[in-house]
Amino acid sequence: MVRRSREEAEATRKGLLDKALELFAAEGTEAVTMKRIAAEAGVTHGAMYWHFRNKKDLLEQLHIRAHWPFETHYLDQRQAVQQDALEALENFLRAALADFSRNTELQCLYRLFHYGRGRSPELAEMAPRLDQELETWRDFIHYFLKQARKQKQLRKKLDLELLSDSLLIAIVGAIDLWLTAPKRFDLRQQTDYLLAMQIQGLRVLKSSMV
Predict the structure, then answer these.
(1) Looking at the structure, do residues 87 and 20 belong to the same domain, yes or no?
(2) Keyword Nucleotide-binding: yes or no (predicted)?
(3) Does position 209 have pLDDT exceeding 60, yes or no?
């Protein structure tokens, strides 16, 4: 009975997190109350507060649940980078964007924590951590570019800081635009064109440009 009760409590908690993510991603954190989340998850208001102290705690737990694909695919490409750094960079970005395109939960998490988060006062306290996530993704890109320069795939005088920023802007911008108008284009199909332009552009970029 104890095990069953524990499993039921965990199922209730997961259901609340699922419903909170769905509502927050669709309507924003300000528009959604704890009471509404509980009601739509089919549990009592008291049960909600048994699992989560307040909305801030709920958001913290949702953020812990966010496993962004950039780190996974960065680690996957660490060996490949020794052979061809720019190809490894392309594979890294392609795999990450593919995950975003097919994973609904990942899309909701990104929409909640990064897409339009400046309009959410509830996320203000989390801003430093969210900013650091973007910096980490940028650092992954910078690593590949640094290896590419060592392999003489890039001109020595190119500013890798600017290039890293530019690539991050392109990737994050693609995700943001797709979330704004998902029927406007297919993210996975567009990834092929985006990366072809970005990676081939890196191969021919003149050092005088940056």
Answers:
(1) no
(2) no
(3) no
